[in-house]
Amino acid sequence: PYFCYTGNEGDIECFAANTGFVLDIAPKFKALLVFIEILWGINAIWEDSYKSAETLGYLNSQQALADYAVLIRSLKQNLSSDSSPVVVFGGSYGGRSKLELL
């Protein structure tokens, strides 16, 4: 299975370091643990996107969910594991977004 932790409103490193439960159970399930960070809310590389109405429309929670789905689907296809289950974890913004994935 895949255990996917979707990022929150800060750098993923901080959240990954404090995710003991997921780190503890992943080996027990022989899961591939993936930490996914959506950078647009915190990264300066997207700064120009805020200046254009054309690109600003992509900086929203629906696009973040679509990006999560594309990445997970791509991982499963590239690793020849299309039938593997996916369990998604997170808290705060990342946790709320998981409800929308369901």
For the record, the count of structural domains works out to 1
> Whole-number radius of gyration?
15 Å
Which ranges are low-confidence, i.e. pLDDT below 50, for 5 or more consecutive residues?
none
Strand content: 5-15%
Q: How many helices in DSSP terms?
A: 5
Mean pLDDT: 78
Adjacency order of strands in the biggest sheet: 2-1-3
Number of strands: 3
Structural class by SSE content: alpha/beta
Dominant shape: flat
Helix content: 40-55%
Q: Characterize the biggest β-sheet.
A: 3 strands, parallel
Please write the string of helix (H) and strand (E) elements. EHHEHHEH
The termini sit apart by: 17 Å
Protein described:
- It holds the Pfam family Peptidase_S28.
- With 102 residues, the protein is α/β, with parallel strands linked by helices.
- It has one domain (2-101).
- It is built from 5 helices and 3 strands.
- It has a 3-stranded parallel sheet.
- The longest helix is centred in the last third of the chain and has 18 residues, at 61-78.
- The two termini are 17 Å apart.
Give a brief outline of the structure:
By secondary structure, the protein is of the alpha/beta class. It has helices at 12-17, 20-25, 53-56, 61-78, 92-101; strands spanning 2-6, 32-36, 86-89.
Features:
single chain, 102 residues
Task: Please write out the topology.
Blueprint: E1 2-6, H1 12-17, H2 20-25, E2 32-36, H3 53-56, H4 61-78, E3 86-89, H5 92-101
Parallel strand pairs: 1-2, 1-3
